[in-house]
Amino acid sequence: MKLPIAVFALFFAAATAVTAQPAPAPTLTITPGETLLNVTAEGRSRRQPDLAIFSAGVVTQAKTAGEALTANAQRMDAVIAALKRAGIAERDIQTSTLTLQPQYTQPRPPEPYPRRDPAGAVIEPAEPQAPRIIGYEARNSVQVRVRRLGEMGRVIDTLVSAGANQVDGPSFTVEEPEPALDEARVAAMQRARERAELYAKAAGLRVGRIISISEQGGYFPVAEQIVVTGYRGGPAAPPPPPSPVQPGEVALGVNLTVQFALVR
Hints:
Elements: H1 5-19, E1 35-47, E2 51-62, H2 65-85, E3 93-104, E4 115-116, E5 122-123, E6 133-146, H3 152-162, E7 166-173, H4 178-202, E8 206-221, E9 226-229, E10 250-263
Antiparallel strand pairs: 1-10, 2-6, 2-7, 3-6, 4-5, 7-9, 8-10
Helix pairs in contact: 2-3
């Protein structure tokens, strides 16, 4: 006897649904004579950053949306060209923001009650004035990664000279964080073990087995920020000589939660 195709498909779907059920999470097993201890420990590893990330952009205003976008595109092309001339690779320039927003007049608030003119005649309150569009503002910005940190000040100076009127950053980081994170993991585990030994000794017990280890990553930069903002719709003021940028250090870290079984 052959089953209809629809019935076979129904059986197959039901079997698949049963198979796809996630396995139950394992339960922690504490044997008699064991005491559960949860310890949280942090490990950090410090590095000199080798990468700086900041954003640079152009804000333009015009009466029509097309005019605002056209002016913005022309100035943004100049900014991107300046970045490339400064030695920034194309892979290190990424568009992060592109917006076009209408600009409105300030609405006239309603008057709370009638007024009288100098002759004593009553003047009825004026109707509230709804805002109206008087122009458009276009914004375009790129995220930039600088790999030669000693040239950071010169790059920012070049951008502002090319027409960028918004520069935000930098934030410093390490391009290859795993070696530093591995150091932090070892340090965090050592700290967790030392802390467990301390608790066990105070309680008259000793550290037995490890039941579980849970990791949460962390990143602790030493932040510095440079902000350059020009007038809306116009070029930024002539920039001062570029200030030296001090990258300092970044600390990469992990937090571990370790469950120990304490025994007598």
